[in-house]
Design goal:
Blueprint: H1 12-20, E1 29-32, H2 39-48, E2 52-56, E3 60-61, E4 64-65, E5 72-73, H3 78-88, E6 97-100, E7 107-108, E8 110-114, E9 123-124, E10 129-133, E11 141-143, H4 146-153, H5 155-180, E12 189-196, H6 206-212, E13 218-219, E14 225-226, E15 235-237, E16 240-249, E17 252-261, E18 266-271, E19 274-277, E20 283-288, H7 289-310, E21 316-323, E22 329-333, E23 339-341, E24 350-357, H8 365-382, H9 389-399
Parallel strand pairs: 1-2, 20-22
Antiparallel strand pairs: 2-8, 3-4, 5-7, 6-8, 9-10, 10-11, 12-18, 12-21, 13-14, 15-16, 16-17, 17-18, 19-20, 21-24, 22-23
Length: 405
Amino acid sequence: MFFNKPIKEIKFNDVLSFCELKTKENFALDYKEEFPKNLEKTIASFANTYGGLIIIGVEENDGKPVDKPKGIKWERGLEERVYSITTSNITPPIFPEVQVCDPVKDKTFVIIQIPQSTNTPHAIENNTKVYSRTGNISTPEELININELHWLARHRENAINLRNEIINSVNDRYYSLIEYGKVNIEFGELNMYIIPAYPTYLNVDLLKLKNEITSLEVNTLGNSVFPSFMNTSIKIMQNGLYLFIHNKGDLGEFTEYTAFNTSGLLFHSQDFGRIKKGNDDLPKKTVYLSQIVAQYFDFLHFYKNFANQINIHGDYKIHVALLKMFKVLPVYIGYNNFWGEDPEPFMDKRYIYDRILTTEVFNSKESIINEVADFAVDLQLGLGFPYTKDQAIKWLEEKSQNINF
């Protein structure tokens, strides 16, 4: 998520522009002035944790890139040199993405994108040492102890168990708040979450995150902001933060819950059910699908900021559930952006959308629109209305004209 484009499209000037931001080295980012002798140590430590990005050719001062880094001398075989290290000096081997920028005045930058591995532990020095990434500038990699080694040996299984534990914990808190507040969401309940596909425990300062998280809010497609920090206070829970809003007014009850976990989970639930009169002048249970699609866009937009803030990187599991939908009338985004209504109510109890998203989804506004368009098509087809991706992209581009990334 550091560059707003795929790694193979990164140019020399893109690196210079990125360095002007003065992004400090962290859990998922490392600068190297020259081609390092122990590159395998950094690559393996990234793969053993959350993955990350190495930029070779950038001198740093106190973890921040210096002004106008010079790059390294361009020569043939730089990409092959990286692959030789990752396949010969690391066990089991790692296969990162590598970009050698087109040279400018015989200088280049080498960008190495290391994915989070599910085939851990990755060892170096003849399979004798295993390192993890710390995020500490003075000691960015540390030797793993026996307990951590056991974790890495069963990394995929442990990570999935941790992922389920985090999701269940945050979900349980939501329904406890619903029960405690005697909240009744009769129909049209939206639940969505995104979390690293294989999360791990992160050393995140929870109080610092609480103080900083409001700065991550985004402008929404509905001309508001997400999350709704202004409407309630931020509460602390184990390994995370949450917001809970329940209001009663002339238009009925409104409920919203958003939770943030330090292992990278973002969870959001909201009441989208509305009562409106039909052509027969009788009240109908309705859900406006445009609001669901817009919420998904805002959700991913905010997660881009949140993931950067806590320095996570890799693939993500996304889950969207529209619950309590039996006999609810969906109000569709119609052809040519006109509203359309299906006279028949939805006859299933729920709609579910599950995907694994790659980190490239968060590269740019366009890549997020592309994912949200896929969701919009799946949602409307799932609820019985024909819709094309071109229509969805057109609608999203129009709605997001004033949204900056």
